[in-house]
Amino acid sequence: MRRRIVLIVAAGLLALAGTTALWAYVAGADARALAGKEAVEVLVAADAIPAGASFAEAQQQGLVEKASFPLGAVPVGAFTDPTQAQGLIATRAIEPHELLLAANFGPPDTTGPATGGLAVPAGKVALPVSLQHFANSADWAGYLQPGAEIALFETFTSAGGPAGATPRGDGLALEAPNTQVTRLLVDRLTVLAVAGAVEAEAGTAGTAIVLAVDQQQSEKIILGLNSGVALYPVLLTADLVVVPSPGTDNSRIFDTPGTAP
Question: Could you tell me the pTM of the whole model?
Answer without folding.
Answer: 0.49
